[in-house]
Amino acid sequence: MEEFARTTRVAARALGRAGLVHAYGHCSARVDAARFLVCPPVPMAHVQVGQDCDEVPVHGPLPEGVLGEVRLHQQIYRRRSGVGGVVRFMGPAMMALAALGRVPEMRHGFGTYFAPRVGYWDDIQLVRDDARAVGVIDAMGESAGVIMRGNGAVVAGETLQEAVGLAWYLEDMCRVELAALSSGLTDLPVVLPAEAEARATRQGRIFERMWDYLSYGDPELPQPNQGTTK
Predict the structure, then answer these.
(1) 69 near 154, Cβ under 8 Å?
(2) Cβ distance 215 to 222 under 8 Å?
(3) d(CA 137, CA 130)
(4) Are 14 and 164 in contact (CB under 8 A)?
(5) 209, 214, 217: which is closest to 20 by C-alpha?
(6) Confidence band of 187 (pLDDT split at 50, 70, 90)
(7) Segments in 83-183 forming alpha helices (H)
(8) What is the helix (H) or strand (E) element at residue 74, kind and residue range?
(9) pLDDT for residue 225 is more than 90
(10) Where are the alpha helices (DSSP H) in 80-143?
(11) Which fold has domain 2-215?
(12) Do residues 174 and 120 touch, judged by C-beta distance below 8 A?
């Protein structure tokens, strides 16, 4: 259990350092079919070494003190047995695009991990009841991510490490879309479904390298060997 908790704390701080979360946001790691751990309900960059993570049932009410929008995590874990990690984040480019009522097109390699298309939930209200949580994940469909109008995004991966990478990918996808909008070149070709399937590889330590990049220097991870000074 402690290994899951450590990964959850490292992920929270990594998302904070990357500017993908601020006062709000949360991440979780599945422990088994019945439960998952969610990061402490504090600004994610402020999560302390060794701080307790909350255990949450996949089915059942949220424990006392757990943030209401953790229902989103529950809905994903209930529906997708292969999901091992979920991130709820608020990257600046994604928030800007969501406020415009748009989802990004697949225009570069990172976008292909969200084929067939990023989901969109057209409701600005906070997701603090089961009915809205069900609606958001319904809108997510088969994608790895869903954007909520004026309210951030949720991504799901096979592991929490992968979900952290997907959060970075979705933010970059939104950055590219905003650049396309500002240039007026939105009619340019997008990545086709067959191209997306071939491009969205997990080979070559794709997500492991992004995890190494985002979590570098975390106090709960082994520090890289810098060599010796003679």
Answers:
(1) no
(2) no
(3) 11
(4) yes
(5) 214
(6) confident
(7) 92-99, 130-140, 160-183
(8) helix 71-79
(9) no
(10) 92-99, 130-140
(11) L-fuculose-1-phosphate Aldolase (3.40.225)
(12) no
* Closest of 17, 82, 6, 69 to residue 43, by C-alpha: 17
- Cα separation, 27 vs 9, in Å, equals 9
pLDDT surpassing 50 at residue 142? yes
Whether 21 shows a pLDDT value over 50: the answer reads yes
Q: Which residue has the tokens 């307790």?
A: 52
Q: Tokens 């650049």, residue?
A: 179
Question: What are residue 219's phi and psi, to 5 degrees?
Answer: -65, -15
Task: Report the predicted TM-score, pTM, of the whole model to 2 decimal places.
Answer: 0.94
Q: Are 25 and 38 in contact (CB under 8 A)?
A: no
Q: Domain residue spans in the chain?
A: 2-215
- Cα distances from 179 to residues 89, 100, 145, in angstroms, run 21, 14, 21
